[in-house]
Write a structure and sequence with these properties.
alpha+beta; Outer membrane efflux proteins (OEP)
């Protein structure tokens, strides 16, 4: 076993120098900067932020500059009040108006305030959606990262088996050379060694595929090689009631549904606002100029301030107002139902995840003890095998048991971490800032 430990120490030193270490914090940082889904969600959130403006809600006036010029060339005949006729072919006429005008809605049944409230909630909805996508992506990164940790541990376990199998082959070949064992035992040991190396190739293939998936999620070179920190840590101080309270406040999916309910309420406000009158004021400063080849006035100009007020009140629109309000109320009711259903679903998921996490923690403790026992058993078996008091089958059984326990222990650690990540995602407490 001392030779095995020395072998693994050298192997780990070589691996570290040949590859870069990717920490979990680095992976999250890279994803926040590079991941395309997160970039898209960030831009969508910015759209909501930009649209949340009082001008977009219709609270500010519209000011515009206008210019109009009309020209005509006419064959004109005019009959004056004294009966005299005046005729001019190709008479030129020109009318030109330009200036600055203002159009401002002063009252529209409070709909402009409802629109502003809607834009505020749409901005919050964009932020909640961004948070949801970030949580989802970071959760996936966590899972892939700890899957790599698990696979690294499994590869180390198989390397342990390979070292023992090689030592067994060497020992049997030496014994065969002096006639103490048969050729069959040597061949069996070589078959076991090939089986271990074959398993290692399969695990290495899965390991490389997982690294490619993580690189893709980080939006970087797919062939970039790295290794991950080989450790599992858990938070064992969680309380179910605290997690449930955090989920009600921070779960991004739940927050998005709460905003959807608010938007349904605001929609009813906007519809009700159409029952009230709309009052607008208009004003401006215009310049006018006209020219005519025929007539009493051949040229005129003018400039000055113009203003006015406009009011309208809907009286009847085919009962569409009542229908729209009834529909909006049903949409509100459905949004409330969806919110209550989602709360119940999240509570159910959180309960199952918490129970699963507690069970996985117990399993990790159990498998950790099994690793200690299996290692002791392997040490004793290997020592007895070297002095010839145990058969190759008994050594192979102890060897496989040790590898199986290591794999089970690594798998239990991984599943516990996945359960923890699931809990954090449901409670909305994944650390990403």
């Amino acid at each position: 076993m001392k030779k095995i430990i020395l072998y693994f120490f050298c192997l780990c030193c070589y691996t570290i120098t040949a590859q870069e270490l990717l920490t979990l914090e680095q992976a999250v940082t890279i994803a926040l900067e590079n991941n395309y889904a997160i970039k898209i969600a960030k831009n969508e959130a910015k759209v909501g932020e930009i649209n949340n403006a009082i001008g977009n809600a219709g609270m500010l006036p519209n000011v515009s500059a206008t210019f109009t010029k009309n020209n005509s060339i006419l064959n004109t005949t005019q009959t004056q009040s004294g009966g005299t006729e005046r005729t001019l072919d190709g008479a030129k006429n020109m009318n030109m108006t330009y200036g600055v005008g203002l159009d401002w809605t002063l009252f529209d049944g409070m709909r402009m305030f409802a629109r502003k409230e809607r834009f505020e909630n749409l901005e919050k909805q964009g932020e909640a959606n961004l948070k949801r996508i970030i949580f989802t992506k970071i959760s996936t990164i966590y899972q892939l990262y700890y899957d790599l940790v698990q696979q690294q541990n499994q590869l180390k376990a198989v390397d342990t088996a390979i070292v023992i199998s090689k030592e067994r082959v060497t020992l049997l070949k030496n014994k065969f050379s002096i006639g103490k064992v048969s050729k069959l035992e040597v061949l069996n040991s070589e078959v076991d060694l090939q089986a271990d190396e074959s398993l290692k190739i399969q695990l290495q293939n899965n390991y490389q595929a997982t690294k490619i998936k993580l690189n893709e999620l980080l939006a970087r070179d797919l062939k970039l090689d790295f290794y991950v920190a080989n450790e599992f840590t858990y938070d064992k101080s969680w309380n179910y009631e605290e997690l449930q309270a955090q989920a009600e406040k921070q779960n991004p999916e739940l927050q998005a549904q709460i905003i959807a309910k608010k938007l349904a309420d605001i929609n009813l406000k906007e519809i009700k606002g159409t029952r009230y009158p709309t009052i607008r004021v208009t004003s401006g400063y215009n310049f006018t100029r006209s020219e005519a080849s025929l007539g009493f006035v051949t040229q005129s100009t003018g400039n000055g301030f113009v203003y006015g007020i406009n009011a309208s009140l809907p009286l009847f629109n085919g009962n569409n107002q009542n229908r729209n309000e009834k529909t909006a109320k049903l949409i509100i009711e459905n949004a409330q139902f969806a919110l209550e259903q989602l709360k119940q679903t999240i509570k159910m998921q959180l309960t199952i995840a918490f129970e699963n996490y507690q069970a996985q923690l117990k399993l990790v403790n159990l498998e950790e003890k099994n690793v200690t026992l299996a290692k002791q058993n392997l040490d004793i078996t290997l020592a007895k095998y070297k002095i010839g008091t145990l058969t190759p089958i008994e050594l192979r059984t102890a060897q496989q048991n040790y590898v199986d326990v290591l794999v089970r222990f690594s798998n239990a650690q991984y599943l516990t971490k996945i359960a923890e990540i699931n809990l954090k995602e449901l409670a909305g407490i994944i650390n990403w800032q």
